[in-house]
Amino acid sequence: MCKHSLYDENSPDCFTCLFSWYGLLIMVGGVDLCLPDSPKPDSLKPNLPKLGLRLSLGFRVGNSVLVGLPVYLMRRLQSVFNAAARLIFYLRRSDHISDALICLHWLRVPERVELKIAMLTHKVLCGIAPRYLGPLNRVTDISGRRSLRSSGTNRLVVPPFRLSTVGSRAFPVAAAKIWNALPDSLVSITSPSSFRHHLKTFLFQRSFS
């Protein structure tokens, strides 16, 4: 499992870490676990759901570094989660996976990344996050700003950046973009636990609607 902190320059690629979990599942099973209809030892079958859950839990650490990842890599990561869900419910590859993800209440990979970034952003604004993540400037904090609709809301200023491939992945930039895309009813919540609950519900409905 990837245990490195956010944006640590010595941190390994979280994409590689997640696939190392998937490789572990295959190694433990001794068979191709991405094919739920393939033969498996009887002693292994009761442990497949636990292995699938451990794969999902392993993604919770460091998933925010995946912000701005290319779409094709996001799809590959999602295929790993789909395989984990199939392990838990003993589904075939031909079976639809959306119902399994909904039963597990698992967000899709893009929404998982947004959830993590938005939660960190909320903590920064509440003053309970590590200092290296801030500061984040609100639109209302800009002196001399003309009276606009955005000036009366809890929106953030997107810092300028040069390289779209790297600069847009910096936390101040990604945090402001994701935060500004959330509805006013969410960004106005002050309680971290309440914010996370309503945020996950919002992202879940958007992901599977």
Per-chain topology:
Elements: H1 14-29, H2 48-58, H3 71-89, H4 98-104, H5 109-126, H6 171-180, H7 184-187, H8 192-208
Explain what the structure shows:
- This protein is mainly α and 209 residues long.
- The protein folds into two domains: 14-106, no CATH class; 112-208, no CATH class.
- It is 49% helix and 0% strand.
- Helix 1 runs antiparallel to helix 2 (48-58), helix 5 packs across helix 6 (171-180) and helix 5 runs antiparallel to helix 8.
- It is elongated and about 60 Å long.
- It starts with 13 loop residues before the first helix and ends with a helix.
- Mean pLDDT is 75; it is low at 1-12 and 24-44.
Radius of gyration from the alpha-carbon trace, in angstroms:
20 Å
How can the largest sheet be summarized? none
Helix/strand/pairing category: mainly alpha
Number of helices: 8
Distance between termini?
Answer: 31 Å
* Rough outline: elongated
Please give the domain count.
2
Number of strands: 0
Mean pLDDT level? 75
Instruction: Give helix and strand order, one letter per element, not per position.
Output: HHHHHHHH
Fraction in beta strands: under 5%
What's the gist of this structure?
This protein is mostly helical and 209 residues long. It folds into 2 domains: 14-106, no CATH class; 112-208, no CATH class. It contains 8 helices and no strands.
Descriptors:
0% strand, 209 residues, elongated, mainly alpha, 8 helices
